[in-house]
Design brief:
Blueprint lengths: L2 H13 L3 H15 L9 E3 L13 H9 L3 E8 L4 E6 L6 E3 L5 E3 L12 E4 L3 E2 L5 E2 L5 H8 L5 E5 L20 E3 L4 E3 L3
Parallel strand pairs: 1-2, 1-6, 6-9, 9-10
Antiparallel strand pairs: 2-3, 4-5, 7-8, 10-11
Cofactor: Mg(2+)
Catalytic activity: (6S)-5-formyl-5,6,7,8-tetrahydrofolate + ATP = (6R)-5,10-methenyltetrahydrofolate + ADP + phosphate
EC number: 6.3.3.2
Length: 189
């Protein structure tokens, strides 16, 4: 399957999931995450879930990060520049949904991509080599290309890996890990 076909397949699979199933699978993914060697870092980039797209609920991950007194960084989409802007989550942060139902901070303390240590990456599908398929706009690949070389990239998926993707581009940035409800995939050498 090509990327467009895989995108369609995994969007359909996610739409079949009930709210209860999403909640249970999201909790299993969160529990798996606790096994990763990433919890001694300082700045963690987290995406807030688009409920309408039946994405993984990241609220439990947010609670763990806050409980560990970590700096949580959220993004705001700048469609005109085709980039993500990043802001530190604070007690005074205001979160609102944009026109695509993405929960985003209205502003706040800007954080440079080079400051971020760990990025939790949204995706629709991933392969056995750590390549991911997102919604196809390239926002995360652009963002990850601005991060420091040793940033840890952790994908979160309801589903297991596909065999190697046929379409991989030089601008595609592979994951270091992908966490599913039943397994942790490691792509680090």
């Amino acid at each position: 399957m090509n990327k467009a076909e895989l995108r369609k397949k995994y969007k359909a699979l996610r739409l079949e999931l009930s709210e209860e199933k999403i909640e249970a699978l999201s909790l299993e993914i969160t529990n798996q995450l606790l096994q990763l060697p990433v919890w001694e870092k300082e700045f963690y980039h987290l995406f807030l879930s688009i409920a309408e797209q039946k994405e993984i609920d990241t609220e439990n991950i947010l609670h763990i990060l806050q409980g560990k007194d970590k700096n949580v960084v959220l993004s705001k989409t700048d469609v005109k520049k085709h980039k993500l802007e990043h802001f530190l989550l604070t007690d005074s942060s205001v979160i609102k949904k944009n026109r695509w139902n993405i929960p985003e901070p209205e502003g706040g303390i800007p954080i440079a991509p080079a400051q971020i240590d760990v990025v939790f990456v949204p995706l629709l599908a991933f392969d056995e080599n750590g390549h991911r398929i997102g919604y196809g706009k390239g926002f995360y690949d652009n963002f990850l290309s601005e991060c420091k070389p040793d940033v840890i990239k952790v994908g979160l998926s309801f589903f297991e890996a596909e065999p190697a993707f046929k379409e991989v581009f030089s601008s595609d940035i592979p994951l270091d890990y992908c966490v599913t409800p039943g397994k942790i995939y490691s792509f680090k050498n």
